[in-house]
Amino acid sequence: MPVTVLLVDDEPLVRAGLRAVLEAQPDITVVGEAADGAAVIPLVRQLRPDVVAMDVRMPLLDGIEATRAVLRTVSDPPKILVVTTFENDEYVYEALRAGADGFLLKRARPAEIVHAVRLVAEGESLLFPASVRQLAAEYGDGDGAGNPVARAAMERAALTEREAEVLRLMARGLSNAEIAARLIVGTETVKSHVSAVLAKLGARDRTQAVIAAYESGFVAPG
To answer: Which GO biological process entries does UniProt record here (predicted)?
Structure first.
């Protein structure tokens, strides 16, 4: 089955460019477009896309609030890929904190755009881990010790030693297969550990788990 994508951006040329790049791939289909975040929820419910590629800054409802709204109100929500002009942007980090699964630069090359959509859809690796780490270092709460709320949540999670090791490797951007090779275990074993980490942290995916790891001080972003 192809990966289905909903494009949300107030610039028609950006939407047209993304559509042209994505629809050139045999395994990706663009199922719809919207010009503002305010239109996202009804379109997501109608079209049930796998991925929403959404501008972070829009006039009526920005990508941050649209992400929160989708995750709050839509059952089995899609993956959300924030599209942005600037990489080192507090808006991007806030979108990740709100539940976005990754971000993509508008100036990205076609191959990078396709890779980002596929990776976010698969959900088995962290998109641009070095950039996420940089954003956490600049905009995350705390000074490396973690903010008290996030630190307490991490302590309550009571990760096992192996789960903690898996989370650290997730934060470095390793895929399930790469973690399995590093720990000399099977991929299914790693998937079980990742699922346990997400459940204990109350994270919907590995991006949110890694953000929690940075904000709690469990992993140093620097």
So the answer is: phosphorelay signal transduction system; regulation of DNA-templated transcription
